[in-house]
Each structure stands twice: as structure tokens, then as C-alpha cells.
Amino acid sequence: MDSATQTLPAVADAINADAILAAHLAAARRGDRAAQAALLARLQDVWFRFCFAMLDDADLARDATQETALRFLQRLPTFAGQSSLQTWSLGIALNACREARRKRWSFPRLVGRLRMTRESSAGVRDSGRAGEPPADAGLAMREEQARLRELVRELPRRQREAVVLRYLEEMSVAEVAEAMGCAVGTVKATLAQALENLRRRWETNQ
Predict the structure, then answer these.
(1) Which of 26, 85, 102, 127 is the most buried (most CB within 10 A)?
(2) Residue in 46, 115, 112 with CA at minimum distance from that of residue 84
(3) With contact defined as beta carbons under 8 Å apart, do 47 and 65 qualify?
């Protein structure tokens, strides 16, 4: 079987998934509760991961996720389809996190957890397998990632938000701009400033 033939089932599955999502979306916008529940089930883990990365507190993240779900359902009829449903909904989650910070600013600290942190942590958990780094290398990795997370926490708010959306959620620059409610050029400039701040602080602490 050639590679083109092998990809046909995957393409068909993707088309079917898109069709199911479109059907759920249309029904949910009409008030169908089963369809609304299906959309919430699809997105709630994404929302919680994002809210936890922004708030660094599980309870606050759960509250923000619940608030996001409520606003998502309230605003669903206004969804124009100019971005993906997930990107649009993360904009709602971002506003919920901003409000949570304003209400309890003295308790939670924002944290940006880069995807590299998550991947390296997974590698440390799996250490001991053939080809994996020794335990002391894993310890050094954890210490470096802890330093990186601390540096991201210290970034200005907008820089921190851009880093979380771009590198944790793996959104495109255009999607980050949509979620943050700003221009693409603004996102690029904000990310450049954030990465320069991280590089400079990293080198200073070496």
C-alpha cells in the first residue's frame, strides 16, 4: 500500500471530526444541551490547562474554567467563525484569568509553563530507560526548568500571557493576537521583548 493510500483513513477521520464539531456547534447555538455538553467536554481540559498555567493555583484555575464555560455558552451565539472555536474560547478564558488576578492578586502568582518544560518533565519521569539521561542529569534539568518557570513568572503581564499562549498552547501568532485582542505585530513585538527579557535574566543568573 502506498503512502497516499495510507493517508486516506486519516483524512477521512479528520473530515468526520470536523463535521461532528460543526454539527455540535450548530446545535449548541440553537440551545441543544447535549451538543453544548459535548463542546464543553471537548474544551474543558484545554481551558483548565491554560488557566492553571496563568494562575498557578488549581482552585483558582477550576473557578476560572467554570467561569469560562458559563461565558462560552452565553456568547456562543455570537461566534462568527473568524477563528477556530478553541482560539475564540481561549480569549474568554484569558479574560476570566485576568479577572481572577484582579480579585485575588495577593494570593496567586502567574506562571508561564513553556512546552519544553512539560516535555522535559515527562522525560525525567521516564528516566531509567535505555538511552535516558542518568538521575543527576535529570536533577539538573529539573533545576533549570524551575529557574525558567520562575523567570517567566517575573515577566510583565502581557509578555507572560503571550508566552503561555504561544509556547504552551502552541497557538499561531495570529491566534495569540485573536485571544489577546491585539494586532499580530503587537504579539510579535511582545514575544520578542519577552524572549529578550528571559535571555538577559537567564544569563545574569548564570
Answers:
(1) 85
(2) 46
(3) yes
Cell, residue 127: 528516566
Distance CA 31, CA 118 (A): 37
134 DSSP assignment: P
Q: Of 1.10.260.40, 3.40.190.10, 1.10.1740.10, 1.20.1530.20, which CATH number belongs to 13-110?
A: 1.10.1740.10
Residue 39 Cα distances to 23, 25, 34, 73, 164, angstroms: 11, 7, 9, 9, 23
Q: Kindly state the helix (H) or strand (E) to which residue 194 belongs, with its residue range.
A: helix 184-204
Task: Give the domain ranges of the chain.
Answer: 13-110, 112-206
> What does the pLDDT look like over 187-196, one tens digit per residue?
999 998 988 8
pLDDT of 124-143, one tens digit each?
445 444 444 455 555 666 77
The residue behind cell 509553563 is 113
